[in-house]
Write a structure and sequence with these properties.
heterodimer; A: 466 residues; 64% helix; B: 200 residues; three-stranded antiparallel sheet; 11 strands; binds protoporphyrin IX containing FE; binds FE2/S2 (inorganic) cluster
Amino acid sequence: MAAAEKQAVTGAGPFNGLLTWIDQRFPLMQTWRSHLSEYYAPKNFNFWYYFGSLALFVLVIQIVTGIFLTMNYKPDAAQAFASVEYIMREVPWGWWIRYMHSTGASFFFICVYLHMFRAMLYGSYRNPRELLWIFGMLIFLCLMAEAFFGYLLPWGQMSYWGAQVIVNLFDAIPVIGPDLAIWIRGDFVVSDATLNRFFAYHVIAVPLALLALVVAHLLALHEVGSSNPDGVEIKNVKDPKTGRPLDGIPFHPYYTVKDTFGVVVFLVVFSMVVFFAPDAGGYFLEHNNFIPADPLKTPAHIAPVWYFTPYYSILRATTDEFVLWVLAPGVVAFALLLIWSMKKSATRIAVGVIAIVLLAGLLSLDAKVWGVVLMATSVMIFFFLPWLDRSPVRSIRYKGPITKTALSLFVIVFFVLGYLGTESVTEGRTLAAQVGTAVYFLFFFLMPWYSKMDKCLPEPERVTSK
Amino acid sequence: MSNQSRVNRKRRSLVIASACAGGASALATAVPFAASMLPSERAVALGAPVEAEIGQLNPGEKMTVEWRGQPVWILHRTKEMLEEIERTDGKVADPKSERKKGELTPEYARNEYRSIKPEYLVVVGICSHLGCSPQDKFKPGPEAFESQWTGGFYCPCHGSLFDLAGRVYKNKPAPDNLKVPPYTYLSDTRILIGEDKKRA
Ligand code: HEM
Ligand code: FES
């Protein structure tokens, strides 16, 4: 379109001329309209819908504070710990920037976990939002990687031993594991080489991937439109004249204002932590990390930061006996269940073969390998939610008692595993973690059946709001 | 124009061929990048052996020396400790050090006490599970992690237990015994860690 053919921008007072000039050279108004002023979002968003925009806000906090930390931080095993102390004690406002960054990491996970839980409550991951969900999961993985790499940087005891344990997870992979772990560390032990490369990942590689994924996530969202607490499509009921969804309201100004309110409340809570309890009693910044890394001595009590503890509990729960008495029978039972509900004999045979191979592996490989496999599965399984959930309705509001019970149990177990992961092991705690691990996986693996047979309520035609 | 029947086959083959050539070069370019992440020449050279003076080590005491960035423990075991080791044979997963023989236990340490001289245990103090360094729990008696503890090492990370010969207890996350490094006695009170006679 030739520049002059585009309509002049109106309604921006003294800026009309400038905006028109830009708009004739760049799709300014079109972008504004399609993503903000004429992007229609359901009118019944509730509390749970704050966390997407909040996560975006925390990402900005992390990037800005991260850039300023990088100005004084030294990615060198001999200097890293001291440079963080220097930031804390001598750089003007350095303590504030660092506490914003370390608290931001925990709040990032709080926002993302609540954001994901929202999707589980309202079935937001279901058709046509599967890809949106997958982008979200990739963001979650990147976030975990980002936090893990960042945690090594202060080069404290927890940094060092946490990295040692996590990198050694790869060592458990049969055949290639040991070499892979050496390649990741760049050395035979966690060392200066490891710190230096983790710095590169943390400040540039992962943030770039994260930003690209956030863009993809938002584009996918705007392609299909938001779901809502009722889980019904607002696009199904449109104003015949304007073609706009009757239950939709323009994102701007309605939700920009709502989200700004969310940011203000968030900042109040966030600032209270930053200023009054930046270590959150050892949950956000672990006490042992105020001791410089000592490659010869593991601290008496080591645990990952809270956001990794549920998966870590699953790793620890996988002992030889657990593999023998729970995992192996579990595989057999699940294979039988699958074979029973499959129609085609080819798929039945395939399931049988896979089950036998798994079983052989379970009985021959170390429990260590299966601990790593279970831990990885406990995160990756979320990718499959769109296909595991076969309920006729999306939202928990209309789902039946079985799904409600299952989801409640899952939440309880997630917290219990999370708590256990922060504590040292005892026989009782290991047993509790094993029960928790079993429930965790049953929630996902049985979902195709219970979500289908549950007694659901009929979904309404249109969204409901008080 | 571009409907299927009128595809220019020659042109299509050329497109496919150039895409393959381009893809292969892109992949090949990844090799130097990936290789740059392997341990550098310097890191490889740092594996030199270290000497330890054990004359001052009293029975029941342990010392730690650093070898390849890892802790190597030298424990001077008492008579009682050696007796405890015999008693734990039934509790440990690999009493005769048969797993991954060459890698974990050099031939000269493949005995009840996993050492050249029974009194001196020399092991790398890194748990075979995920690499934490276990703690000393030499005193026998009831412990939170084991009601009939006979002394050994406790890994704080995921609760693996090792006896006083570095042998792993059954049904624990760690699959293997603690690694015995290659070592040799230079004299009665000096040990060389990282090299044994055969190679010296
Ligand atoms: C995207 C989300 C991010 C997360 C979740 C995150 C997380 C973390 C964590 C957990 C730490 C260790 C905190 C501590 O013990 O103080 C850390 C440290 C650090 N991060 Fe980030 N980070 C993010 C983004 C960034 C970015 C974009 C940069 C740079 C441009 C950056 C630069 C740094 C630096 C220099 C440190 C070391 C200083 C210190 O320990 O206080 N981070 N990060
Ligand atoms: S690292 Fe020792 S038990 Fe896991």
